Amino acid sequence: MQEHVQLDQKEINKDLLDTIFHTPMWWYLAVTFFGVVFLIGASAFGYLLNQGLGVTGLNRPVFWGAYVVNFVFWIGISHAGIMISAILRLTQAEWRRPITRAAEVLTVFALTAALMAAPLVHTGRPWRAFLPTPWILPYDFARGIWPNIRSPFVWDPMAISTYLVASSLFIFIALLPDLAIIRDRSTGLRRVIYSFLCLGWRGTPRQWKLQIVAGILLSALVLPVFVSVHSIVSWDFAVQIGTEGWHSTIFAPYFIIGAIHSGVAAVATLMAVMVWVWKLHKYITPDHFDAIGRLLIVVGLTWFFFFFLEWVFALYTLEDPEIAMRKLQVFQWPWSGMFAVFLITSFIIPVTAWLFRAVRRSLLWMFITTILVNVGMWLERFLIIVPGLMRRTHLVFDWGSYQPSIIELLMVIATFAWLCLGMLVFSKIFPLVPLFDIKEAMINREKIKIGRKEIPASIRE
Amino acid sequence: MDRNVSDVVAIDRNVSDVAFKNVNNTLVEASNQTNLKWPLIIFAILSLLGFVGFSIKVFVEGVGSQQWGYHAALVAFLLSSIQSAPMVAIAPRVAKAHWRRSTSRIAEIFGLLGIVNLLLFIPLMWILPSLADGRRSLWFYDALEGVSPYSPHIWAILAIVVLAFLGVFYLWLSLLPDFAILRDHSKVGTVRKKIFKFLSGRWWGSSSNWYMHKHRLGIVGAHYFMLLVFVHFLYSMDFCMSLVPGWIDALFPITHAANALQAGVAVFIVTMYIIYRFGGYREYIGLDQFWALSRLLFALSLLWFWFWFSSFIILWYGGKPSERFVLELLMAGPYIYVFIPVFILNFAGPLLIMMWNAVRKSILGPTIVSIGVLIGTMLDRVRLYVGAYSVSTEPDKYALHSVPNTIWPQFSSDVLLWIGSISAVILLYLMVAKLIPLVNIAEQKELLLYKLHKEFHRTKVMVLGKPE
Amino acid sequence: MSDNSVKTSGKRKWSMAVDIDKCTGCQACVVACQSENNIPINTEDLFKQRRAIQWIRIERYWEGEFPNAKVRFIPLLCQHCDNAPCEPVCPVYATYHNQEGLNVQVYNRCIGSRLCVNNCPYHIRFFNFWEPSWTDSLKNQLNPDVTVRSRGIMEKCTFCIQRIRRTTRESDKNNQQLKDGDRRLNPACVNACPTDALVFGDLNYVDLDTGEKSKVAKLKEESLSKNGRGYKLMGELGTEPNVTYLKKVDADSGHSSHGGDSSHG
Question: pTM value?
């Protein structure tokens, strides 16, 4: 079943460094396109800063809308990198090798997109929230006014900034050997820059050892951060008693597993794009799609169980506001339509499709199903946040609704453009597939003959 | 080039060089030789105490629900420990981890012991209040439409019966090739031969036999896992949470199940240690099994904290009176003396002890932590179930209005019942261990096929096959 | 210091009682609040956007079908909860509990994260979506004692803290005891109420001459006793509001109820 493409090191270097040394026309076109989309979003932000949050669709009582949905969505996507890199590295799943770096880069850009999506544009007074220092730092030191450590909005920046630093370090450490290869193959200014970036990597046994130890240590240390980030994001909602459907103990694990669901799906989408755009079919084979498809089945089913429990216990409360909110989600247009789309796209179609080997091994199908998952997961966050805030409480006087304005939508789209832009620029400067990891896999690869059958094997110890 | 220094998938280091042909002989002999006369007698006597305790409970104390909290806790504890132990065979088998080969049998036998729990579960059917008295429930109940107020009872008993039998079935499935070996190694005409012939079905080791075998194991294992989680969901809901008005914790079934996996690994490690130490399987069970499992135990201990904290922070931060009372009942009030040891034994202790590489990579370290985890889980179940049963007469279905007092165990009934039931479990295990080999012979032989030593530049390396 | 303690009756704790039976839904309180507290003009457009700001609002509920319909009013204002859900969630301490039992909002600190309003079960905090503006003719009516809030921050009922401060400061200075029900102390809404449905005062007040308790303390005590009409809005949440509501009495049925009561059932 597994195809074994044995490649020599020269070929690997040539294939994977191609994007850095040659720039095709489509790259410029794509960068321009996403750049323009991003700039449109940025100008929408300028307009918002000038006019105030009135230009959004937010109102009483729906005080949080598309920005917060988008924030949670991007934090969710950012769980891809660590799931793929750290967990699969610690469990030594061989198939992770060609996609680790792309997944980590996805993490970092998704995190920056998340930071753009909420704290910056979402607050009423961004200038007060970020100037002179971000709100998390004690900004009025002299008068002894400290940030309120009890607030989830103080836990949030702590967790997210730690995660951002840790995952950037993670990428950087894994990049070192590859940067050295680029340094050796470039001249002039480029050589100077890469020599600086690779921190004098010579490939001595001691350096390798340190790099490996750092990688494993970071994998282990980043895991608690990985868990804490989305738990804390979920507690932004779950600690509140004022909003229906949010005050549930299951939120932290439910958000984490949802994040892994959408994050791993995003990695699979990215894998398909990588094969098509950067022609990496020698490195990312149907086997890899097969493996990630299996992982996705497990993650998807687990996610669904949490979703089921969340619903069961919402109804178990027997509280009128809670049940009114659930009725709104399921039976009232347009939420009912969104709910149906969410359930079909994030679970029913993809998980059923992944059960078939042919789907798991097809790039196109994996691309389509994983895109569907993320459409569904965006809607899921929307359906948690907005109908909850529509306040189906006993105070019926204050019931409301929400519709995102064009400004909000432009800024949401801009975060997607930002991610694409980031990935494109990164691929121009650094190799998207870790060269040394692939080479190591080639060396470790072995075969064992049992009777007439040859079984793939790998070297241990 | 030693990037793959096996820090994760461990392969028997001190074991394994048993020659291929010898595997059969050594293992079959080992299963014949063990002398368990005295332990069997002792545990048989202790099990009888359980009957005494149960009788005292029924005939002297009566069937009021408050006295039965310890019984419900016992069932929950056995569900959490012995019935989740088979997961230590199922999960690594699905993940194709090689270290499980010599120890998966030890875990599977626990599937059979689920029967004891099934028997203990029966009296609870009379204890659990029906839905007619107005308690909250997940289940449908409509007096007018004639929907039974006993639907929780029906669902729970269905799931628990199926789980117990699935456990037995899984054990039998994995034993098939070994039964065939035992059949071939017994003398013609003896009773033993006949029994093994019957038990081994029509196994003759054809490739279609093996193909079916592997698929069946995978499917039955996956179902066992799903059903296990479902049983935890039902049991923790209907026999615990729904008895306390105002206790709404959507994570609780998952906490319950995750805690059970932790206890399952712990009970497995303790059993493995006993077999390693006294059972004469030192050639097969080694550091690698302990090492792999200690990592798992460590991870599950951290998970315990995460789940507990996720629930705690929501209830504590929310701070509604109903939530405050629940927290006081379970953590800060009448059961605080139980909760603190639980916290130490299930999380703080394992964290502080197992964070050291040297301890994780030892045999005694994980065993000691496991004993702690087992005691912790036992206390945890007591805290939850006795706490829940102490308020089951509360009439209001929305909130707890006062925190009931601590209920202490009765030595004459509760303690005897606990001792008796746990002894019965051990007794049954010993009896099974006398009949079947404690190491999966077929899997052990398969490992030898997949393993190869090879020269690599200047060192010697091990090459390991990864079928599929 | 010792002199002061003679004149005041211990630590102050401000509280309000709202008798729904007396409320006619005339909205005088709303208008009074609007002009006292520099609340931006709520135009028709703002109401359509659902972004109007009303520190006190009259919620109107109908009970029953048309010919036999009954109208219920419930004046809703910040409940100044002792266990306020909005307080712990603010990242910058813009909202906190002061020593006199008031839930206060510090406009300068607020960054507008809107976490507090999501966690307020009474939905009684307001966000300035737009920069507030007044026509030139109205600019001179702005109350100089009250900050004009810019866009992007939360605001809410303060129990007219500027009036409380001014009056308590004056009486402390003159070494006199504050009188219960002093119109200079009462919030604008209380003064404006034509039926005295709103009662405001200090719960710990004891008249030094007569030894009598304040009106609000007596109302609270009586109404929350066994057969009283009093209740706390959404009391089951345990927010411990400082506003006590008194149920409506229905003349025809002798049985009392009203629309805003949110006990389960």
Answer: 0.91
